Amino acid sequence: MQTADLLVRDAELIATVDDARRELPGGWVAITDGVVSALGGPGDPQPDAVRRVDGRGCLVTPGLVNTHHHLYQNLTRAYAPALSGGLFDWLVTLYPLWARLDEEAAHVSAFVGLAELALSGCTTSTDHLYVHPRGAGDLISAEVAAARELGVRFSPTRGSMSLSVKDGGLPPDSVVQDDDEVLADSQRLVQLHHDRSPTAMTRIALAPCSPFSVSPALMRRTAELAESLDVRLHTHLAETRDEDAFCLATFGRRPVDHLDDVGWMTDRTWLAHVVWPDAAEVTRLGAARVGAAHCPSSNMVLGSGLAPVAELRAVGAPVGLGVDGSASADSASLWLEARTAMLQGKLRHGAAAMSARDALEMATRGGAACLGRAGEIGQLSVGACGDLAIWSLEGVRFAGALSDPVEAWLRCGPVSARDTVVAGRFVVEDGAVLHPGLDEQLAVHRRVSQRLQAPLG
Q: Are residues 319 and 424 located together in one domain of the fold?
């Protein structure tokens, strides 16, 4: 048997979330050359390993997958003037501050935000950066550099806005771009950063912001470009009742009809929020295998509503979890989103409707499917990426939780990962981010946050 680079052994339970949903009490998992090379139960022969990690008293899961975020928004967390409004009020208040974004701001917000996610067991994250002020520089490449420094898997999206206030949209003129500029930069970023290999650390998707900030023409042309480049599509959709009203008034159709009209009703697409589709629209989304990034905390903070998660999953729509930006309870914990998704599922449909395993599946396999990476990430199986999270189930929080480690993981807590491993390398160890530059980045983050939040005018 080949010597592994890393062997995690003697776990309380390994929840593989593989095709068979195997769970291995007392199990072990080996990672070699960045991928899972073997796994088994306590009676199965284990390989030698360069490094052995004791998993006693721990649950081991696949690394969690974050399907929706706005990393730059951690620069304006809990911003007092924006705390009491709904989505549209919140956006209009913050757009002028975000117009101050530059490469330094994009880099430091990504570094800090991805470190925060890693502490919650997240090994892969997307990002939706749709604010590109004139003269700000290459914001997406700055984010990619931060992810590579930290060592996490990253699938940023080239966001865009083309409708400013003068065009009937919400953002100011200073942060919108014309269609040709958006599409040319989208193609450049795909050619520069998109890795098509099964173990890719970086992939790019295309992401016009929302129906109320981009034109139908840009939506159509972006879908055509994504098809020609074979990359994925992402946008916000059906987030609020206000969006329903806007789409009806502006386009003469509801958001899901608009999505279909602009050529996005495809399995290349995953959508953020999807709170307000009606029953027929849910069925259409499932039939087209359009993915949904469920953002439970954000939807509660902004009063947007409770998404029809069970209904979407039942008709075959891939559903992942997203922490969203600084609207998301101003935190970025995939563990918190998994727990909140479980609680919301019980609230909507009864105590038996959503289990911890359902939430874990959305946080792993569901997220992988949204990002077009089913079988590559979000599960522990031979050949999958060597990404995992180790969760201690010991101490005061878990006293008495003896019968079901997966349920205990979400019912007890709050919980952060003990260890977070990406491609066989530790990003978080013993509850701390390993990168030696984190404190320096936090100091930069404070300075940049103060600059963005300085009084306007």
A: no
